[in-house]
Every structure is written in C-alpha cells, then in structure tokens.
Design goal:
The complex is a heterodimer of chains A (114) and B (110). Chain A has 114 residues and is mainly beta. Chain A has no helices and eleven strands. With 110 residues, chain B is an all-beta fold. In chain B, strands 2, 5, 6, 9, 10 and 11 form a six-stranded mixed beta sheet that branches.
C-alpha cells in the first residue's frame, strides 16, 4: 500500500454537529500532517504528529482536535465549526531518508459547514 | 522565516511551447525544495524534489543557491500538463515544516 487514504471524501455538517475525518497510511511513515486548503490557495499547515506525538499546532482553534491512535492512523475531530471552516482538508505523511524528508498527500476531504 | 514566492499566478502557453514556472525562496540554512502538482479534482502529487535531480513527465528543476531559485521547466508543454503547480520548501531549521508558494496555474492551449 503506497498511498495515503482519507475518509470521507465529502462531508456536510451543521455548526452544532460533531464529526471526524480519518486518514490512514501503511508506508511506515513516521510523521503525519493535517492541512487546510481553500479554493485556489496553497495548503496551510494545521498539525504535525511525529512518532504519534503532537509536535506542531499552528495555533488552530480548539474546535479542531487531532488524534493519532497509532502510527498508521490520524483523525481530526470537528465540533462547533463555522461556515468559514469549509475547505478541503488534506492529510499527508512523510519519511526521512538519505535524500531528505518528503511529504505525500491524501486526496482530501471536502468539508462544507452550513 | 522561510518564504516561497511564485510570481506568476497564471501561465498560458500553446501545446508544444516551452514553459517555465518561477520559484524563489528565502531560507537560513540548507533548504529542501519540491514541486507539487495538483490536477483538477486530484490529490496533490509530488512532481520533483531537488535532491533527486530527476526528470518527471519531462519537467526539470535546478536549485540555484546564488539566486535562491528553483524554477520548473519543460521544453514542450502538453495539454495534460494543465494544472496547479506549487513550489515548496522544507528544512531542519524550520522544524521540517513544508512551506508552499502561492501556486501557478498552467493552462496549455491546443
């Protein structure tokens, strides 16, 4: 398995709902990431997990809560989101080798908050 | 602070013409440079990384440390090259965070 997978592909939720985004990779990558991407803009880093521990939180509002249950899984729990949180949420994973560290991205979850 | 600049938001070229996407960066230390491509409704894909010095889909990019640039080039553009291209930078000095440029949309006309 050489890809990062994400579920669901699409999600519509109300501002009072609680939902979760899931990300999975079986490439043995040590680091996993959540990004937010608005239309026609580059991805913006949200969180980084390294060896299953949260290493970077880019001042993300607490209505976004990441979780890394094991080295292959990464979740993003959503609660009380705002319409401006509507975006494509990307997961990525990376492995450092002799050539450096390269991130590989999942297909994303397209989120619409009503 | 690390920064990546892609000065062109849109590049429109005819099929068979050369295409060059500009990328300039600022970074204190030894950067790792990447080009990612995002085709319509597809995932962000790694196209090139400077450390590999490889050619993918006819694209090449050379790291010029003197000019702090990592421009992407292809001698003969194809219609299937139409996509959004992002230059990105990473490095140990910034905790291996990947910083993206604003992106360049390439449109290859028949």
């Amino acid at each position: 398995d050489t890809e990062v997978t994400q579920t669901p592909k699409h999600l519509v939720m109300g501002m009072t709902n609680k939902k979760s985004l899931k990300c999975e990779q079986h490439m043995g990558h040590r680091a996993m990431y959540w990004y937010k991407q608005k239309a026609k803009k580059p991805p913006e880093l949200m969180f980084v997990y390294s060896y299953e521990k949260l290493s970077i939180n880019e001042s993300v509002p607490s209505r976004f809560s990441p979780e890394c249950p094991n080295s292959s899984l990464l979740n993003l729990h959503l609660h009380a989101l705002q319409p401006e949180d509507s975006a494509l949420y990307l997961c990525a994973s990376s492995l450092r080798d002799l050539s450096g560290e390269t991130q590989y991205f999942g297909p994303g979850t397209r989120l619409l908050v009503l | 602070a690390q920064r990546v600049t892609q000065p062109e938001k849109l590049l429109s070229v005819f099929k068979g013409a050369p295409v060059e996407l500009k990328c300039n960066y600022s970074y204190s230390g030894s950067p790792e440079l990447f080009w990612y491509v995002q085709y319509s409704r597809q995932r962000l894909q790694l196209l090139l990384r400077h450390i590999s010095r490889e050619s993918i889909k006819g694209f090449t990019a050379d790291l010029n440390k003197g000019e702090t640039s990592f421009h992407l080039k292809k001698p003969f553009a194809q219609e299937e090259d139409s996509a959004m291209y992002y230059c990105a930078l990473s490095g140990e000095a910034a905790g291996n965070k990947l910083t993206f440029g604003g992106g360049t949309r390439v449109l290859v006309k028949p």
